[in-house]
């Protein structure tokens, strides 16, 4: 069919517009198959002149991104990304740059196939980081599709992402457990009270992930949710990982318990496959991380620096965690964090931790997941690295440091003070916890007294593994920084957007 014949047939309604767009020349032959953007688009790690734009193609195609100041796209800047191929599961990203600071950017993404056929266009927006003091709205949470609770069609999918998007955040800090690679999904789950939770299922979610394709499939599954895809297109993300991207409670050198149903039990082997899928499917660039993998600083104008931690890849075994020394950050990351906080000129320094500091998170009866080890007294085990960081913050007179985390599937506000602590060489600070987004809700956990935490506010379900049907126990947090006063406000919210707790913090310096 020639292009002229195709145009005539289209006018008569005999073929669809996509077929028209796929026809690239007047020569004879079949209409060319167009590449397709299979899982929407996403924005990550913004700077004052741009951000990373992520997409996935179903066949080899070049990623093309165009940006403009308005949705009319009358003044377009064009960026050519990589050729997306099966080697990266069809995923890829391109950093768009040279854009004005502190502005709303409209972008559109398409794929150009190797034979000239182009995909449909998907649009989105993001904000570049400001270079002058300005209002900032940052959200954070974690834990998506865990404990057997996936995308429920009866609820309209993962509606919490629509709730968050409606508040128009500039940034979203995904604090880990972006997937639950170790949690399979069934078509339905009967809850203790007799209610039925229903799941959309997928082949990759039929069993715990072991192969690279299974890990990839877990990310693909979450992005079949309309709410999640729309959120990704409109909110710049800062992503980190925790344990369920690999397997529950993983650590380097660990072995999966024999009763967990794994054929591959080496946590290192599983983590290597998980790392590849994570970097393929999330909007971050490994080369921009300090270690070529994850931990990094995101500078967001004069009022905010975000320090993104990796508390998994450098931690020691989940043993008693009471040795004279321990590791949860590793020496290099500990030094990087201390130096970065000392050198930061931003008013507020947010430390994005994928594990809470003082919450006791058991791994069995005698082991522990995070820094806290339930041992009163001087820091021991992994607490020694946290004590090193806290002491350096005090010694270097670093003001206005706030810690954000998820992991424990409830929301809380913790105030740490040397007046209550066994270890006193630090300045008081706040840690805020939020989650889950679409997973079983738990908690609360006990607190370790070493750094003197006080649970000022806690919101947790009455029973463990409460389903997302009870939206009041699904949580996200929101940080608002006032561009004029520099005041920082933290709101802890449920999945309906109801504010459960609010804390205002004035900056020590203006």
From TrEMBL:
<dbReference type="Pfam" id="PF16655">
    <property type="entry name" value="PhoD_N"/>
</dbReference>
<dbReference type="Pfam" id="PF09423">
    <property type="entry name" value="PhoD"/>
</dbReference>
<feature type="domain" description="Phospholipase D N-terminal">
    <location>
        <begin position="39"/>
        <end position="128"/>
    </location>
</feature>
<feature type="signal peptide">
    <location>
        <begin position="1"/>
        <end position="21"/>
    </location>
</feature>
<dbReference type="InterPro" id="IPR038607">
    <property type="entry name" value="PhoD-like_sf"/>
</dbReference>
<dbReference type="InterPro" id="IPR052900">
    <property type="entry name" value="Phospholipid_Metab_Enz"/>
</dbReference>
<dbReference type="InterPro" id="IPR029052">
    <property type="entry name" value="Metallo-depent_PP-like"/>
</dbReference>
<dbReference type="InterPro" id="IPR032093">
    <property type="entry name" value="PhoD_N"/>
</dbReference>
<dbReference type="InterPro" id="IPR018946">
    <property type="entry name" value="PhoD-like_MPP"/>
</dbReference>
<protein>
    <submittedName>
        <fullName>Phosphodiesterase/alkaline phosphatase</fullName>
    </submittedName>
</protein>
<keyword id="KW-0732">Signal</keyword>
<feature type="domain" description="PhoD-like phosphatase metallophosphatase">
    <location>
        <begin position="144"/>
        <end position="492"/>
    </location>
</feature>
């Amino acid at each position: 069919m020639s292009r002229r014949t195709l145009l005539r047939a289209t006018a008569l309604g005999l073929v669809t517009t996509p077929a028209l767009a796929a026809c690239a020349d007047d020569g004879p032959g079949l209409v060319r198959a167009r590449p397709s953007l299979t899982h929407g688009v996403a924005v990550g790690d913004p700077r004052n002149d741009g951000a990373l734009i992520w997409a996935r193609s179903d066949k080899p195609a070049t990623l093309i991104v165009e940006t403009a100041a308005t949705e009319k796209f009358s003044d377009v800047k064009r960026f050519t990304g990589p050729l997306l191929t099966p080697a990266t599961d069809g995923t890829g990203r391109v950093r768009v740059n040279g854009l004005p600071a502190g502005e709303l950017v409209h972008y559109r993404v398409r794929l150009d196939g190797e034979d000239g056929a182009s995909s449909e266009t998907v649009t989105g927006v993001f904000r570049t980081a400001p270079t002058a003091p300005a209002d900032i709205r940052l959200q954070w949470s974690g834990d998506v599709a865990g404990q057997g609770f996936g995308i429920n069609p009866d609820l309209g999918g993962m509606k919490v992402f629509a709730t968050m998007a409606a508040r128009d955040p500039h940034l979203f800090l995904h604090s880990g457990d972006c997937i639950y690679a170790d949690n399979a999904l069934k078509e339905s789950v009967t809850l203790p009270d007799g209610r039925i939770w229903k799941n959309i299922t997928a082949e990759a979610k039929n069993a715990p992930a072991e192969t690279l394709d299974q890990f990839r499939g877990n990310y693909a599954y979450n992005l079949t949710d309309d709410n999640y895809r729309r959120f990704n297109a409109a909110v710049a993300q800062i992503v980190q990982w925790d344990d369920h991207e690999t397997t529950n409670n993983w650590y380097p050198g660990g072995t999966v318990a024999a009763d967990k149903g794994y054929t591959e039990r080496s946590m290192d082997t599983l983590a290597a496959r998980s790392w590849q899928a994570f970097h393929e499917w999330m909007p971050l660039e490994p080369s921009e991380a300090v270690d070529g993998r994850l931990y990094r600083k995101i500078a967001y104008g004069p009022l905010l620096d975000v320090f993104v931690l990796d508390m998994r890849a450098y931690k020691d075994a989940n043993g008693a965690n009471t040795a004279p020394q321990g590791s949860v950050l590793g020496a290099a990351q500990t030094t990087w964090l201390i130096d970065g906080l000392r050198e930061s000129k931003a008013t507020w320094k947010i430390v994005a931790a994928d594990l809470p500091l003082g919450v006791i998170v058991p791994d069995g009866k005698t082991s522990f997941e995070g820094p806290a080890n339930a041992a009163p007294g001087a820091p021991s085990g992994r607490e020694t690295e946290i004590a090193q960081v806290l002491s350096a913050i005090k010694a270097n007179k670093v003001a206005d440091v706030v810690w954000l985390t998820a992991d424990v599937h409830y929301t809380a506000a913790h105030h740490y003070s040397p007046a209550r602590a066994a270890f006193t060489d630090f300045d008081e600070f706040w840690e805020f916890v939020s989650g889950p987004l679409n997973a079983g809700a738990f908690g609360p956990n006990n607190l370790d007294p070493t750094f003197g935490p006080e649970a000022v506010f806690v919101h947790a379900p009455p029973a463990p593994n409460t389903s997302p049907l009870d939206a009041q126990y699904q949580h996200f947090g929101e940080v608002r920084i006032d561009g004029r006063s520099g005041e920082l406000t933290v709101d802890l919210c449920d999945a309906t957007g109801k504010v459960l707790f609010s804390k205002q913090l004035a900056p020590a310096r203006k």
